[in-house]
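User: Fold this; tokens only.

Assistant: Input:
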Amino acid sequence: MKSILITFDQAFYDKVVYTLDHHGCRGFTYMEQVQGRGSKSGDPHFGSHAWPSLCSAIIAVVHDIEVEPILNDLHAMDIDREQLGLRAFVWNIEKSI
């Protein structure tokens, strides 16, 4: 099993959830308001007067074979709208209950 952490501008929520649904990923944890800035480019998302937008994050645990198709679809979204700062990170899941 793998964990995928997806961070994105709030405007991407519906598309990210659709992507997970499309790949049969029913369960996830959604964090509506997170703050951050990209390491290379893009505007900060701090929810402040100067930087009013915010990010969201979703973490999902999926089977190993589901990771690449999900990442491919997320990458296509990111290329289509780079300024929205979609990122995805994958970790191994050692144990779950």
